[in-house]
Write a structure and sequence with these properties.
By secondary structure, this protein is α/β, with parallel strands linked by helices. It has ten helices and ten strands. It is 39% helix and 25% strand. A hairpin with a 2-residue loop joins strand 1 and strand 2.
């Protein structure tokens, strides 16, 4: 077990009078890969949005741990949190339609100095310094045309994951990272996640409906329903928990 990466205290999100997330006290990141599961409407994506500050909390505190330092990120912006090494992938695929796959990867590595498109195109030093790393990912995932646009949903999904990995985060939030991917690419993503956590010390939290994937890759699993995290533990314990079976997998499930 590793040291924690995130600690949430009294985190609440309300829309109108309805509470959609209510997490009194939870710690993430004590294992390399952790899973967050639950039925539709449980609040999983909202919780990820709160952690990454894509949406604001109604109340609460989020503490982030990096290099043995405790950082209160409760009121920091999405960009500030990313620069601290807490990065998230996208459930809904986003892409720069005007950029090729290679150029989009280059943009993710650019410092603020280079973030305007024309600077990326003309700066030879930036291209040279990032070329090898970009090529490794292109070779690993075997894009059909890396100098063309990401055309399929699968290519866009992979590109989003690669952009996150290129940032070398300490803590990576992945929202349905393999949805829509063929099995061979799913296997590559899983292998990459395992390598990043074991070799580079990255912590990863996966939000996923594919329970087979969750049971396969997670060292620790959190079960969320009706805005609350009700259960956490190793996969075998969580999958056999009667509350999880009743609220998520259905009565009589032997999953």
């Amino acid at each position: 077990m590793r040291t924690k990466a995130l600690h949430l205290q009294n985190v609440v999100k309300k829309y109108g009078g309805r509470t959609v997330v209510n997490v009194p006290d939870i710690t993430f990141g004590t294992h390399g890969i952790e899973g967050l599961i639950g039925p539709n409407g449980a609040g999983k994506t909202t919780l990820i949005n709160l952690i990454s500050h894509k949406v604001g909390m109604t109340q609460g505190q989020i503490l982030y741990y990096k290099d043995e330092k405790e950082i209160d990120i409760s009121n920091k912006s999405f960009d500030e949190i990313s620069r601290l090494g807490l990065v998230r992938s996208n459930q809904i695929i986003q892409d720069f339609e005007s950029l090729s796959i290679r150029e989009s990867m280059l943009l993710s590595l650019a410092t603020p100095k280079y973030e305007k498109f024309y600077n990326i195109f003309c700066d030879k030093e930036l291209r040279k310094s990032t070329e090898q790393e970009i090529e490794r990912y292109l070779d690993y995932f075997h894009f059909d045309n890396p100098d063309g646009h990401a055309l399929s949903a699968g290519e866009k999904k992979l590109l989003d994951i690669i952009r996150c990995m290129l940032l070398k985060p300490n803590f990576l939030l992945m929202d349905e990272p393999t949805a829509g991917l063929p099995q061979d690419q799913t296997d590559k993503v899983v292998e990459l996640m395992r390598r990043k956590t074991t070799e580079e010390g990255m912590s990863i939290l996966i939000v996923e409906h594919d329970l087979d994937l969750i049971w396969k890759v997670s060292e620790n699993v959190f079960f969320m329903a009706e805005g609350e995290i009700l259960i956490q533990g190793v996969p075998d314990e969580v999958r056999k928990n009667q509350t999880v079976i009743n609220k998520y997998m259905g009565e009589g499930s032997n999953a």
